[in-house]
Write a structure and sequence with these properties.
Two copies of one chain form a homodimer. With 526 residues, the first copy, chain A, is α+β, with helices and mostly antiparallel strands. Chain A is 35% helix and 25% strand. At the A-B interface, strand 2, helix 4, strand 3, strand 4 and strand 5 of A face strand 2, helix 4, strand 3, strand 4 and strand 5 of B.
């Protein structure tokens, strides 16, 4: 569940100005200094990623046609350029969970208040953000009805009904849907919005062992979404007691990091709910021995937040940078017809190139518009982040070659047309790998191991991703948050990595000086 | 848009008792008379399709595990058995519209009241059913916010922004989402619910010709969903002025018919909106001559209603009957291990059969549970509508054959195991065709051509699907509705078929006696 997303919403103080997306309409702010390319083409960004990250982000998602700001604050239009990325991830994840015998279903958007309030810890986490329907047409409803912020309480009364005996287990359901969390400050498109799209899986097992195993299987799929598709390195880890899902037993997550802002971002979460909800909702079954037992439950989710993290990690001062695996256009082919050149021949070569690539399953397209210059088109498709540009001009035609330009590093190379496909396939694969490696290198450069409080304070001020030995006590984390509270937001635990570095005997907690029990990542976060 | 669905909601009087789904919980009503099979197995239905259609429908969707009734009236849980049918249709329709260069996107669930109310005719149609969010957490919102009943008004302000010149056209977007129409009476799962799933396409063109052509291209896809996937014959036609989409220019639809209740049901609609919305939302563009022009728009939708129509048309007194093309399990394999038989051999044969079929892409599964008898399993999978059952017992094992039993007509046939795959493929294809043909035969038997008012009144009372020559005047339709109003609901026009039968010179309107201009289908409807 992005259930832990709600936790962050309570920590309003952690969100600082530099990460805030400007509303409304980033375009309205683009009157100031402009990059050279902007003067030339009317395209380009007014803000630089390193100088004003928040404004840059707003501008890049709007100019890159991922998002349109909407007239209700905190709600955004997901345009086709972003939607296709969502669909690509879905077409990976959905078959994977089906292999695990998880079935899709659809539960209602609405929850009645009595059911919503059944699990006390859970509702405490969500109550302030719940949107309530109180009227239909001109009439008041008898009872206000809530819009789901997540579906535990929507679903579990029916799990109780459907599960009778051990043969009804495991019960493994998933739904792709929208949820609503009416937060009042600091919305950021994709990262924190009042409505977002996600999948939410809800499973019930006879034993804790099965539940534990599934939590990690799902976490591995989330890692693959980030690392294999979005080319973003993530850390698999366990959340602290303070940061776990409201009402659950323990929470695992994949954590990404945005070097520019020095903030961690919870990428997706896989929770073991233990038997807490099964107790509240009376989800009992008769086990093989004929005894009454309670089920063990998990819930897990990833959301459209993934897309925002991708923009933040890879984007640059020319706009979006899309990893080839999720780009709806992987290769854009642009004719460069100099005066007196064989324009028709060039156009034919462009079309033939697109055809060759598309036949092999590469998502290629040609921009043959006659009312824009090649230069304008370069900027346009750079803004939209297309991984590879192919230019074809008279000289290329004469030499039976094309020119390929990489979006990620600007490298240019001439490709002979007779081995075009193979070369393009290699380039695409290379771009995907390079993006991941570059992101990993930048992320790793931010990781700092600290062992004392003084080192910690310095590292926080330097926007580091901090790895520190910790005593794993809730009071100590509260204390860390209190002591680092400031304009930029408090530091908190991000996760304790599943792969723990060695902990030498006698290592002390960086914050309390008590014996440390685990290595934990700390930092500011979204 | 199932935009025309909203029209029907206003005609509350058209819904009669026999078609109403009983709420809450069909199961609670199953204490009365029971079918023999029910006594034997604990399964089976308490109600017969021909005797009490409404109760039968409620029971079959619950016992068939398509729907669970939810604690908020008019909202239903779509269980995996139904969801997989929705996904199958989606995996046909989505690639088809992508071939037409229609792109997916996602607009917000919420609409601000000023935008919602911009198109007067349109809002008049929807206003009584709009659900309003007025609170978040404990706070009142400054302005109430509507939940989309459909997305014309959500989307078109942005069409106005995005469309500048003729090169921005056509703009063709689609979204898969939930919508909410808070109707206060007579909810019926799938057919009429307060929240439902659909796709809604919204397109804008430079010329009326392009818009007209797309309306019919989409309508053809809707016909294919019904006829090729759901095995339900539909009539393509044009809606009358009274029945068209609120605010549109004209509406086309595919119309299905439920012989048991004698009611038409609007299967899906493809609307040409003309320039009405473009005027209201100022969706202008500069055409090739440099002049300002208004776009021509379409919107079109099909919803989870499709699944309800399928249940109503094909289901029988043993439960659901699923067309193979949309069944998530096409073949269920059941071991029949008589006492002292080679149980392991039979189980192995079952597994081998499933494997053979699955490898060839047939969705097959074995029910090897040891706590249910073969007879119980037969009833169970019949209830769930699996198209083909394969039984394997000792005799089958000895003869190297399996027994196949068709769900649609109960026919049994022994299949040699060495040509099993081919035979099963033939059977599946045959079942799909037979279902369509049987449904068409039943539907056609209900069609009655009438030429006079007296014939019309008799045909209405006999629950016919009436084809009559009509003068196509709005006042005359209003008059027909007024004159047929009664306990069972008024008759109204369903559609004027695109394929018009010959109209002999001098033919008179059945209702007004004026010269007839077209043949139109009439009847009661959902």
């Amino acid at each position: 569940m992005a259930g832990s997303e709600e936790k962050q919403s309570k920590a309003k103080e952690t969100k600082a100005k530099e990460t805030k997306a400007k509303e409304p309409k980033a375009k309205a702010t683009s009157g100031g200094k402009k990059k050279e390319v902007k003067k030339e083409t009317g395209l380009g960004l007014s803000h630089k990623k390193d100088e004003n990250f928040g404004e840059w982000y707003s501008e890049v998602i709007v100019n890159g046609e991922m998002i349109e700001y909407y007239d209700i604050s905190g709600c955004y239009i997901i345009r086709p350029w972003a939607m296709s990325i969502w669909e690509t991830m879905q077409s990976f994840f959905d078959p994977e969970i089906k292999k695990m015998k998880i079935q899709n279903c659809y539960f209602p958007l609405f929850v009645s208040p009595t059911v919503l309030q059944k699990e006390t810890d859970h509702i405490e986490g969500f109550a302030p953000e719940v949107a309530w329907v109180t009227k239909s047409g001109e009439s008041d409803l008898e009872v206000p009805i809530a819009i789901r912020p997540t579906s535990e309480t929507v679903m579990y009364p029916y799990y109780s009904k459907w599960i009778r005996g051990h043969r009804d287990l495991p019960l493994k359901l998933n739904q792709w849907c929208n949820v609503v969390r009416w937060e009042f400050s600091n919305p950021t498109p994709f990262i924190r919005s009042r409505e977002f799209l996600w999948q939410e899986g809800h499973t019930a097992f006879a034993t804790k062992e099965e539940a534990d195993a599934e939590v990690l299987d799902i976490l591995e799929l989330y890692r693959r979404i980030y690392e294999e598709f979005l080319a973003i390195p993530v850390i698999k880890g366990k959340k602290s007691e303070l940061e776990k899902f409201a009402g659950g037993l323990y929470t695992t997550s994949v954590e990404a990091f945005i070097p520019n802002t020095g903030r961690g971002v919870q990428g997706a979460t896989s929770h073991c709910l233990g038997q807490n909800f099964s107790k509240m909702f009376e989800i009992n079954f008769e086990n093989e021995k004929g005894e009454k037992a309670m089920v063990w439950q998990n819930s897990w989710a990833y959301s459209t937040r993934t897309i925002g993290v991708m923009v933040m990690v890879h984007g640059d001062d020319k706009g979006l940078v899309l990893p080839p695996k999720v780009a709806s256009v992987q290769v854009i082919v642009i004719p460069v017809p100099y005066k007196d050149a064989d324009t028709q021949g060039i156009f034919d070569a462009c079309n033939a190139t697109v055809e060759t690539l598309c036949e092999a399953g590469i998502r290629a397209s040609a921009d043959l518009r006659d009312n824009y210059s090649p230069g304008w088109k370069y900027s346009h498709w750079e803004m939209r982040g297309v991984p590879l540009r192919i230019e074809i001009g008279p000289k290329d035609l004469a030499n039976n070659q094309v020119r390929a330009v990489r979006r990620d590093n600007g490298a240019k190379v001439d490709l002979p047309r007779d081995c075009l496909l193979k070369k393009v396939e290699e380039l695409i694969e290379n771009i995907q790998d390079s993006l991941f490696n570059a992101a990993k290198q930048k992320r790793d450069a931010c990781i700092q191991i600290v062992k004392t409080w003084d080192e910690f304070v310095v590292a926080v001020s330097q926007k580091k991703l901090i790895l520190a030995p910790w005593c794993d006590e809730e009071e100590v984390e509260k204390d860390v948050k209190a002591r680092t509270k400031g304009e930029m937001g408090a530091a908190k635990s991000l996760c304790s990595p599943l792969e723990q570095p060695e902990m030498p005997e006698g290592t002390k907690c960086f914050a309390s000086g008590k014996p440390a029990t685990k290595w934990t990542y700390w930092g500011r976060s979204y």
